[in-house]
Design goal:
This protein is mostly helical and 353 residues long. Helix content is 66%, strand content 1%.
Length: 353
């Protein structure tokens, strides 16, 4: 237990801060949601026209810059890339399709459970099944191959781009779109969102926190270290929700959620499976991008394009439920994940041999 003290403490802090962001203006059960916040940024940049989800979320910027600062201070910043970049881009889009079917990333799944949303428990079951699917292919030799050292400037470039995005968020020029209603119009003050993002990104880099890592490592390596972070976020957020009167148990009328169990399940199967293939959940990809990993940056751009695609082609769910287009897209993505998994695990070569 002593060796897990650090990540437990960090998880408790993150859970507390997540609910405080809701108290200060973020949508309910959405102190953090990597998928939702990247979707909002895509809308703010005009990549989709869903007027209710358009806002440059400072939390995303803070997460990357906080990780960047932590990596520099610890001399762990290493610019690297070149590990199947386009495959990672496609996997990023695939994970976003699953997340916007469920209406949340693994981080928000935990926060939704902490708020009493039973639909998120269904999502958790799907998430675990997806992780086990990914582990199956890891055990069969799945790999996107190694990455390579690249120019330090390449590693600095993404944090610099996000500093530019932060400036746009602050000055809010006319070409940046900002929701006047819906989830995109609900936000904590920009400076507080940024500071919390910086803090969480810094802590995330220090602890290697990852929402899939806890389950994956428990199965593969019998290590519960990352799982303690997952559980402590859940516990702290639940206590805070009780304290503020935000805990509302049940399936019906949950904020920014739907109650179609099958598609909540399948959406998170996609997120769990795709995240294992990528080597980390969406939160972990942001942290890795701050450490200089350009493969994670490519993945994040996959998230961004995937989010825009989901709203431009009516793939994203709404509180009314999933769309027909979204259901078809999830099934297509399952096939895509299967193909990527099989091809990169060498199973075809073994069969041919």
């Amino acid at each position: 237990m002593k060796k897990n003290f650090g990540i437990i403490t960090v998880g408790l802090l993150i859970g507390i801060l997540s609910v405080l962001l809701v108290k200060l203006g973020n949508p309910a059960n959405m102190g953090f949601c990597i998928a939702c916040f990247i979707r909002d940024i895509a809308g703010a940049l005009g990549m989709h026209n869903a007027a209710v989800v358009q806002y440059i979320r400072p939390e995303i910027i803070g997460l990357v810059l906080g990780s960047f600062a932590a990596a520099l201070l610890a001399k762990e910043f290493k610019a690297k890339g070149g590990s199947a970049p386009f495959t990672r881009f496609v996997l990023g889009m695939a994970v976003m399709v699953g997340a916007l079917m469920f209406l949340g990333c693994p981080f928000r799944m935990v926060l939704r459970i902490a708020g009493g949303d039973f639909n998120a428990i269904v999502g958790l079951v799907g998430f675990v099944c997806g992780i086990f699917g990914g582990i199956f292919f890891l055990n069969k030799g799945f790999s996107l191959k190694r990455n390579y050292s690249i120019s330090s400037f390449e590693g600095y470039l993404f944090p610099l781009v996000l500093v530019g995005l932060l400036i746009l968020a602050i000055i809010a020029p006319s070409f940046i779109k900002i929701s006047t209603e819906g989830p995109g119009s609900m936000s904590a003050p920009i400076i507080i969102s940024l500071i919390v993002g910086l803090f969480v990104g810094f802590l995330g880099q220090k602890t290697r926190l990852c929402m899939i890592g806890g389950i994956r490592d428990a199965v593969l390596f019998k290590s519960g270290y990352l799982l303690w972070g997952f559980l402590s976020i859940l516990i702290a957020a639940a206590i805070m929700n009780f304290a503020f009167g935000y805990f509302h148990p049940g399936f019906a009328d949950q904020p920014v959620a739907h109650s179609d169990g099958l598609w909540n399940f399948l959406g998170m199967v996609v997120v769990g499976w795709g995240s294992v293939l990528l080597g980390g959940c969406p939160f972990r990809q942001l942290v890795l991008s701050g450490e200089g990993n350009s493969d994670s940056v490519i993945t994040i751009f996959g998230f961004l394009v995937g989010a825009a695609m989901c709203h431009n082609f009516a793939l994203a769910s709404s509180p009314a439920g999933p769309s027909v287009n979204g259901k078809i897209a999830v099934l297509i993505v399952v096939v895509v994940l299967a193909i990527i998994s099989v091809v990169n695990s060498g199973l075809l070569k073994k069969e041919q041999g």
